[in-house]
Write a structure and sequence with these properties.
The protein is an alpha+beta fold. It folds into 2 domains: about 15-180, no CATH class; about 190-340, 3-layer Sandwich (Rieske Iron-sulfur Protein). Helices cover about 35% and strands about 10% of the residues. It has 9 helices and 12 strands. The protein has helices at about 15-20, 40-45, 45-75, 90-115, 135-150, 160-170, 170-180, 185-190, 240-250; strands at about 85, 90, 200-205, 220-225, 255, 275-280, 295, 300, 310, 315-320, 330-335, 340.
Amino acid sequence: MTHNPDQPALPGNEDAVNDPHAPVPAEPIDNPGLPAHHWRPTDVDPAAEKRAERQVATLFGIASLMSILFVVAYFAFEVGEDPDTFLGLGASTLFLGLTLGTALLLIGIGAIQWARKLMSDVEMVEHRHPAASSDEDRASAVAALRQGADDSGIARRPLIRNSLLGALALLGLPAIVGLRDLGPAPGNALAHTVWRKGMRIVNDVSGTPIRPEEVEIGQLVNAEPSVFFDADENGEPIMDGHEVLVEKTKAAVILVRMQPRDITPLEERANWGVDGILCYSKICTHVGCPISLWEQQSHHLLCPCHQSTFDLADNGKVIFGPAGHALPQLPMGVDDEGYLIALSDFEEPVGPSYWERGE
């Protein structure tokens, strides 16, 4: 680094630079002719410096206010089927975008103004050096970092420092509030499904109830709860829209039929099937892929994503692959009209098993 001989000394340090007897560092090349340095108003006018400092702190303060208004807007405006609007636009989306965007913009503008008006403003020339740094170079780099911290003035400008820290801290509020939209934790969300005692098992495309005699040995049927197709006394769907999509991802099942003699159920699951028909969750316990690749001779169900393989004749046990938990089985029976029904919800969480699960 060299000093431009045409550059005037910093205020209060004129003698050091203008001393003709001061040692001149050796340079590999002559001065290329740097232009004369021009001091900024904030370098020579204390009033301008204080004014700039207040401007930067104000920008950071307004950014903090915008982060708080983001949280207010998040809870104040309705979304969904009857959302609040503003100028024909969704009020929630509009104000969330404006407040968060303004907060980020003001922090950026404040940082730029801080650097342009208040941080040290000097010309520097750096010469190339070998790629392998010496101990002296490392020490110089550390010294330069410390000098940079000193030049930024963050230690001697508490107003800017504190307002910036406050703005950055409050900027975390939108992120924290936004996590609410991710929904409940997986362990709770997947612990229960819409399956209830007496609910019919229906074809997942037509919604047709299924009788035991309609399922042939070796067949696999993709199914789901009848509630997705049921209507109330006014003919309106009991469940519809987004709610159906969410619940379908958890309640999807498969029916398979095999020879009863081939099934080795756990003692407590002896009555969970009907004439060799068993019902299992369709969601792989590895990362949640839907499964329906059925090998009727071996009674194995293969996940197409990572090849986890489950033995449905042996309580859905994992026999190959990365899945760490057997497929949940749905207790099943027959109603008075001869249709297959659930006897209860699953007795364990469905889906991926990467959180703690009870046995």
